[in-house]
């Protein structure tokens, strides 16, 4: 497979600065970095260590989904400039998590706002050669207002905007925690995948018995969890990466698989973060290399 392995930058590793982060990542055998911003300095640091640009985080997403029309209009112009700047520096994938400004906004209402706002953004993305990749994190509890985290909404979104320049950041960890068949989703929406996250979820069956799919009433037992599940590195959860790799290969996917480290066992120190990234990369390399 022509797939590069990379990572989103965890906090302790990132605190070392982009030069040290890039040097360590290259030494660990990674090939790309997902970065929070793209500047000439960041690009130079990646290039000096032989690393490519995975995805670049979008900055104006919440305001693009504001109820206030003037706020949305300003955000659209800011997003268009951001895409132009990223494209000029060689970035191609723009990472978005469509969490609205108001976390209580019903998803149906948010979708109507999205339909008004995003056609212009996607047209600009087409002109600039940018591919938007939306993340399936359902958003903060208890409202879970994020747009684009279920097949139901992906289908409606892709009908409204057929362009491949608006697509998915495929992250099976979110689908597992939501009870959605992550392989079926990959098969149905694979042509719209613009980026992939290497993250996993373990279903905690004892906790599932205690509180079902609701949030734990008295606090969770694990970090990166809401009770009956916890995020993990690939290989420590329920995702069968062999099946994911086979289907991505069949689709001809040639982008990156970037490790997103959200696992309490590999958190809290730079040594733990590095250990988690190395273990995750080794597991993914079994199937993607």
Any descriptors?
two-stranded antiparallel sheet; single chain; 289 residues; 16% strand; alpha/beta; 10 strands
Taken in chain order, the helices and strands follow as: EHHEHEHHEHEHEHHEEHEHEH
Q: Proportion of β residues?
A: 15-25%
Q: How many beta-strand segments? A: 10
Query: Which value, in Å, is the CA radius of gyration?
Result: 18 Å
> Termini separation (Å)?
6 Å
Largest sheet: number of strands, sense, barrel closure: 8 strands, parallel, barrel
- Order of adjacent strands in the largest pleated sheet: 1-2-3-4-5-6-7-10
Number of H- or I-type helical stretches: 12
Low-confidence stretches: none
Mean pLDDT: 97
Helix content: 40-55%
Question: Based on helices, strands and strand pairing, what is the structural class?
Answer: alpha/beta
Shape: globular
Quaternary:
single chain
Summed up:
The protein is an alpha/beta fold and 289 residues long.
Explain this structure to me?
By secondary structure, the chain is an alpha/beta fold. It has twelve helices and ten strands. The chain has helices spanning 11-14, 18-27, 40-48, 61-64, 69-88, 107-128, 151-160, 172-178, 182-189, 205-211, 241-251, 270-288; strands at residues 4-8, 32-35, 52-57, 93-96, 131-135, 166-170, 193-198, 200-203, 229-232, 256-259. The strands form two sheets. It has an eight-stranded parallel barrel, surrounded by four helices. Strand 4 (93-96), helix 6 and strand 5 form a beta-alpha-beta unit. The longest helix has 22 residues, at 107-128. It is globular.
């Amino acid at each position: 497979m022509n797939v590069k392995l990379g990572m989103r930058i965890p906090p302790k590793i990132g605190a070392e600065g982009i030069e040290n982060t890039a040097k360590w990542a290259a030494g660990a055998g990674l090939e790309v970095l997902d970065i929070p911003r793209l500047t000439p300095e960041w690009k130079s640091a990646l290039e000096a260590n032989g690393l490519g640009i995975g995805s670049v985080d979008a900055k104006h997403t919440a305001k693009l989904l504001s109820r206030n029309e003037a706020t949305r209009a300003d955000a659209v112009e800011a997003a268009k400039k951001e895409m132009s700047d990223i494209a000029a520096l060689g970035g191609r994938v723009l990472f978005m998590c469509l969490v609205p400004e108001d976390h209580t906004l019903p998803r149906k209402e948010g979708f109507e706002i999205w339909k008004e706002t995003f056609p212009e953004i996607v047209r600009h993305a087409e002109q600039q050669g940018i591919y938007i990749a939306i993340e399936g994190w359902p958003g903060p509890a208890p409202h879970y207002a994020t747009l684009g985290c279920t097949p139901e909404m992906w289908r409606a979104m892709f009908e409204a905007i057929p362009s491949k320049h608006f697509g998915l950041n495929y992250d099976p960890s979110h689908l597992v925690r939501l009870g959605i068949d992550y392989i079926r989703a990959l098969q149905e929406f694979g042509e719209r995948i613009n980026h992939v996250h290497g993250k996993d979820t373990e279903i905690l069956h004892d906790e599932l018995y205690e509180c079902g799919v609701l949030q734990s009433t008295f606090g969770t037992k694990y970090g990166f969890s809401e009770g009956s599940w916890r995020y993990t590195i690939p290989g420590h959860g329920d995702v069968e990466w062999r099946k994911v790799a086979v289907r991505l290969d069949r689709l001809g996917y040639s982008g990156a698989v970037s490790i997103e480290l959200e696992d309490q066992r590999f958190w809290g120190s730079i040594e733990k973060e590095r250990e988690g990234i190395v273990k995750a990369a080794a597991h993914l390399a079994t199937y993607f290399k």
